[in-house]
Structure formats: structure tokens, C-alpha cells
Write a structure and sequence with these properties.
It is a single chain. By secondary structure, this protein is an alpha+beta fold. It folds into three domains: about 110 residues, Butyryl-Coa Dehydrogenase, subunit A, domain 1 (Orthogonal Bundle); about 100 residues, Butyryl-CoA Dehydrogenase, subunit A, domain 2 (Beta Barrel), CATH 2.40.110; about 130 residues, Butyryl-CoA Dehydrogenase, subunit A, domain 3. Helices cover about 50% and strands about 15% of the residues. It has a four-stranded antiparallel β-sheet, with no helix packed on it.
Length: about 375
């Protein structure tokens, strides 16, 4: 039976992240979106909360308390503050968590200690492709074995912080299966565009196109060694993180719209007294709660070691729709002000539109 009561450590963690989001992130997230850059001290402060090191086993320098449910509630708390900031703080997870889930003992010993330091390591991962029929389980980027090496070819999009990355985890199609490869930044054949992508949302997070042109790497750089990876498992963990982030942002949009409706007075009374507004806010609250329960259920299944592929797929589809609905209704609640950039509702709507395309931008 699922238990919806957070334990003491989970409460302490979410309270710490909540204070960080409220007192630090909310003060700068609008300027960060306008300027296209998140303050470095803000990212460092988010890293120092220690979400990732607490999931890494003690033998590699962490604290060894890995829990997908804990990761989900933490990501929700981060995303309540700002989505782009959340994705940047979680970027090291894109390498660390797959290594924990699927890496060989040698790969874990080599890479996991990098994520237990005082500053976040410069790493990233490349999954999404700029193609019409993009399917993470049937990628167009290819990996071909050749004389103890792998040769990779393809193009990736939405690669966060790629310009500064020293290590990239690249997902590619190897004989019809999605596998992952650890590639040092300056490997011949790996190039990253100089100009960052110009996105509709998460504009404070730098993302780039990545190109692989006969990029040749040793066979031992294949994540999981000879056995490779169970990609569905990694994708399910990623979708829990993305679902939790969507819930956090939807919660923020709902709360803002609710408070605005209580304070905005027209014709002698708050607009929250109008039945049309009250019903819309009620539907927003129901959507957020329903989405949260689906995220938590999927995380719970993963913590139990069960196959959560169906649950993760259904959850992700549902949550993608609900976060967009909630953000759109927040704009409607504010009326004309919702379309003005001085108010955060339009930012949440732009960010919400992207969740259907955010595969690979977060994982817990």
C-alpha cells in the first residue's frame, strides 16, 4: 500500500528547497528569463542543498539514500521556484543517475565521485533529436561497433550546458536498441554549435545542438559495458523527474492565479467570487493533485523495483496535458495582465508548452 506521508528527512529536504525557491529563486527568475542566464551563485546554492550527493552510495563519496519518491518531491519543490533553474541544478543528474542505474563497477568508481564535490561537475547528456519522427526508443543517431571501438554519427538537440561540458552522455541506436556512451568533450568528431538554441520557454537555460561525425570512442565507454543499459528504466526515471517538475510549476501557476483572483476587485467584489473563475480555479487544483498522485505512484513503483514503463508513459502523457491546461487557465484568470511579461503567468505558459518535448532534460 502506498503511504502518502513524507518521512522526517523528506520533510526537511522539501522545506529547505522550498525556502531556497521562495527566498532566492523567485527574486531573480523573471530577470533570468529576460537575460537568458541564471546567476552562478544561485546554481551553486541549489547544488549545496545536496540532492544528488544524498543519492550516491557511500563507497563513492555520497550518502547512499537513493529514493525516487524523495527525488520527485524535491524536484517539485525546486520547480515551484523556476523550471529553468531546476533543470540547470539537475543537469549533473543526467550523467550520475544513469551511471548509478546501469554503469559497471569500474564506471561507477570512475565517475560517481565527481558528483560528491563542493561544486557541480561540468557534464551533460544528449538524448533528443531534431527530427520530425523523434522516438527515444528508436533514435536516428547511430553507434556502430568497430575493432574494440564504437563509431557514432548523428545530431542532438536540447543539450543543456553543452558549451561548458567536459563529459557528455550520448544516447544512440545500436542495432535497434537505445544505448548510452560516455564521451569526453574534446573527442574528435564531437562538435557543439557556438550559438545556443533560441527556445520559446526555459530561456534562462542554455541548450545547444550537438553533432557527431564519425566520433570514435573505446568500447569501455559504453554505459553498462558489454551488457549495456535497460533504456526503459532510465527513461522512466527521467519521466518521473519531468512529471514532478511539471507538477511543481503547475502548483506555482495555480497558487498565483488563486491569490490574484482573491485580491483583484471588479464591480465591488473579488473576481474569485465569480462562479466562472471559482470553477476554473477548482479544476486547476484538481488537475494539480491528480497529476501529483500519478507522479508519486510511478516513483513508488520504481522504488519497489517494479516495471513502471506503462505507469510512466500514462503519467507523462497526462501530466503534460494538465500542466498546459493549468498554465493556460492562470493566464485566463489574470485576463489582459496574463499576457503582459511583468507577470509570471505568461512565462509558465511558455514553459508548460515544452514539456512534451523535454525528454532527457531531467532525471532522478
Amino acid at each position: 500500500m502506498m503511504d502518502f506521508e513524507l518521512d522526517q528527512e523528506q520533510k526537511m529536504l522539501t522545506e529547505a528547497i522550498g525556502r531556497f525557491a521562495r527566498e532566492r529563486v523567485r527574486k531573480v527568475f523573471r530577470d533570468a528569463d529576460e537575460e537568458g542566464k541564471i546567476p552562478a551563485d544561485l546554481v551553486q546554492a541549489g547544488w549545496e542543498i545536496g540532492l544528488l550527493p544524498t543519492t550516491i552510495p557511500e563507497q563513492y563519496g555520497g550518502f547512499g539514500e537513493y529514493s525516487v519518491v524523495t527525488g520527485a518531491v524535491a524536484v517539485e519543490a525546486f520547480a515551484w521556484g523556476d523550471l529553468a533553474t531546476t533543470f540547470q541544478i539537475l543537469t549533473p543528474n543526467l550523467v550520475a543517475v544513469p551511471v548509478m542505474l546501469a554503469g559497471t563497477n569500474e564506471q561507477k568508481a570512475q565517475y560517481l565521485p565527481l558528483f560528491c564535490g563542493e561544486t557541480p561537475p561540468r557534464v551533460t547528456a544528449a538524448l533528443t533529436e531534431p527530427t520530425i519522427k523523434y522516438d527515444p526508443r528508436c533514435l536516428q543517431t547511430t553507434a556502430v561497433p568497430e575493432n574494440g571501438h564504437y563509431v557514432l554519427n548523428g545530431v542532438k538537440a536540447y543539450v543543456p550546458l553543452a558549451a561548458e561540458a567536459e563529459l557528455v552522455l550520448v544516447y544512440a541506436n545500436e542495432n535497434g536498441r537505445t544505448q548510452a556512451f560516455l564521451i569526453p568533450r574534446h573527442t574528435e568528431g564531437l562538435t557543439i554549435d557556438d550559438d545556443r538554441e533560441k527556445l520559446m520557454g526555459i530561456r534562462a537555460l542554455p541548450t545547444y545542438r550537438l553533432h557527431l561525425d564519425n566520433c570514435r570512442i573505446p568500447a569501455e565507454n559504453r554505459l553498462g559495458g558489454q551488457h549495456g543499459i535497460d533504456f526503459n528504466r532510465i527513461l522512466n526515471h527521467s519521466r518521473v523527474a519531468l512529471g514532478a517538475a511539471a507538477v511543481g510549476m503547475a502548483q506555482a501557476a495555480f497558487e498565483y492565479a488563486r491569490d490574484y483572483a482573491k485580491q483583484r476587485v471588479q464591480f465591488g467584489e473579488p473576481i474569485a467570487h465569480r462562479q466562472s473563475i471559482a470553477f476554473m480555479l477548482a479544476e486547476m487544483a484538481m488537475d494539480v493533485d491528480a497529476a501529483r498522485l500519478m507522479v508519486w505512484e510511478t516513483a513508488w513503483l520504481l522504488d519497489k523495483g517494479e516495471d513502471a514503463t506503462r505507469a510512466a508513459t500514462v503519467m507523462k502523457t497526462y501530466v503534460d496535458d494538465r500542466v498546459l491546461d493549468v498554465a493556460d487557465r492562470a493566464v485566463q484568470t489574470l485576463g489582459g495582465y496574463g499576457y503582459i511579461r511583468e507577470y509570471p503567468a505568461e512565462l509558465w505558459l511558455r514553459n508548460a508548452r515544452g514539456f512534451a518535448m523535454f525528454d532527457g532534460l531531467a532525471i532522478v
